[in-house]
Structures are given as C-alpha cells and as structure tokens.
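Table 4 source record.
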Amino acid sequence: MAKGYELHQARMMALQAMGKDLARRAKSRCEITGASGIPLRAYEVPPVGEDPDIDRTLLVSQDCLDMLDRPERLAGRSWQCLAEAVWSDFPAVQVVAWRMLAELAKREDWAREALDGVFLDPEVESWARSEGR
C-alpha cells in the first residue's frame, strides 16, 4: 500500500514540475475551452505512460475535468468550443476534443457534423480511438 502511495505522490510531483511549462504553452488558458482567469489543472490524456509526459498532458478547467470524468453528462451547444479545439496544433488537445465530440455526437447533430469534417493525422486518430480512456 505504501509503495502505491509513494508512486502516486512521485507522479503528482512530476506533474506539478510541468506546471510552468504547461501554463506557458497554454497561455494560462484551458486548452479545451480557452477559458482564462480560472483555476486550471493538469490532465494526463489516457492511456498514460509510466512517467508523466508533457506532450500527453493538458491544462484544463474544472468543468472540463468533470466532463472528462463523466462524458455521458456532456450535452448542449456550450461545448461548441470543441469544434475549434480539435484543430489545435497539439495532438493531446486534438485527442481530447475528438473524444468529447465523439461522445456528444451520440446526442447532438452539431457535434456529429463537426466530427464529420475533422481530419487527424493517422497516429493521432489511433490515439483518439484507443481504449485507454
């Protein structure tokens, strides 16, 4: 039990060490919604590796974290920001936006249309479709 706790603590410290670099890359905004002036947290895009990787980590708002934890609760046009986020220069943002759009597309026509127009690099698409979520 103690070993698991120690590993978790080490991972959290590694994520915290990335904080400044994440904030700089994200310009202190949620990398999904673009919201600023709110608390942001690191989110590791599944599947996660043994060690935290800044290229697989996003800075997101609590609202995004809540939806990532419970994607079945995603609904409404308030998430139209995903249609723009999926075109980000950062693959991890593309993956998360694609996954959220795919969930929304089950219920929302606008999300289905947005998803139909998305082209991802084959490697990024494979990551987005992976079961490690």
